């Protein structure tokens, strides 16, 4: 067995400065360079990062959380000084030569990904359906038929909620159109379940936007100025542009 394996975090320009940052398993982070590209890597213990060990570890939520935090921490730190194309979590190679082969084989795709995000950041926008007070009047109560009156009230409440959600979805689509217009690119994701989002309101839009400095300012203005009683907008970022630096976009 080799003395160490090579864990890959991301690909950057070869000239990009590497910050002082600790990687997975408290390892030192370094670069493997080929041509105009550099892979940001760590040398890791083969007993902990072999293919078999990783299969076991990826089922360990505590290990997965700590490794993901370290992985994303490296990417975020490197992104402070230039464009970064993140590599999938737990990507491990046998040695530096194999990493150089990765850079050589995918050089044009990596270069295109870096050019696409150069000078740009990613912002996330989540839109929730805001509860609307009032609404249609409830059916009149018939004291002689309490069961029927209850069912009519429940049906009216469901209909009112459905109409409110439809209005919120339409308003969110309009908001997304405005936000995407000031972005270089946008990407939509499936709305999160309330148990994941941490909000009781239903999420009606979950999107990411790639913007330059002017676009970021415009994005903020659109969020701050939007007056939509049916919506609640949440802006997060800036982030390293994970959503837009993938090779799959080529």
TrEMBL record:
Coiled coil: none annotated. The keyword Calcium does not apply. The keyword Zinc-finger does not apply. Its main location: other. InterPro entries: GvpL/GvpF. It comes from the Bacteria. Keywords: Gas vesicle. Pfam families: GvpL_GvpF. It is found in: Gas vesicle. Belongs to the gas vesicle GvpF/GvpL family. This is GvpL/GvpF family gas vesicle protein. It comes from Pseudonocardia xinjiangensis.
């Amino acid at each position: 067995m080799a003395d160490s394996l090579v864990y890959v975090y991301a690909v950057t320009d070869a000239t990009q400065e590497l910050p002082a940052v600790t990687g997975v398993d408290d390892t030192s982070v370094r670069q493997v360079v080929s041509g105009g590209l550099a892979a940001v890597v760590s040398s890791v213990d083969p007993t902990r990062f072999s293919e078999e060990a990783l299969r076991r570890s990826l089922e360990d939520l505590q290990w997965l959380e700590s490794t993901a935090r370290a992985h994303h921490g490296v990417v975020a730190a490197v992104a402070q000084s230039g464009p970064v194309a993140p590599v999938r979590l737990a990507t491990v190679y046998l040695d530096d030569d194999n990493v150089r082969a990765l850079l050589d084989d995918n050089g044009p795709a990596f270069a295109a990904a870096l050019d696409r995000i150069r000078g740009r950041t990613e912002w996330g926008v989540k839109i929730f359906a805001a509860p609307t007070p009032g609404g249609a009047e409830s059916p009149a109560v018939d004291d002689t038929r309490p069961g029927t009156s209850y069912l009519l009230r429940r049906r009216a409440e469901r209909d009112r909620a459905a109409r409110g959600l439809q209005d919120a979805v339409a308003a969110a689509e309009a908001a997304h159109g405005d936000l995407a217009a000031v972005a270089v690119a946008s990407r939509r994701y499936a709305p999160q379940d309330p148990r994941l989002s941490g909000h009781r309101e239903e999420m009606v839009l979950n999107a990411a936007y790639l913007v330059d400095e002017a676009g970021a300012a415009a994005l903020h203005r659109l969020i701050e100025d939007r007056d939509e009683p049916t919506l609640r907008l949440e802006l997060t970022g800036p982030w390293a542009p994970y959503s837009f630096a993938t090779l799959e976009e080529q």
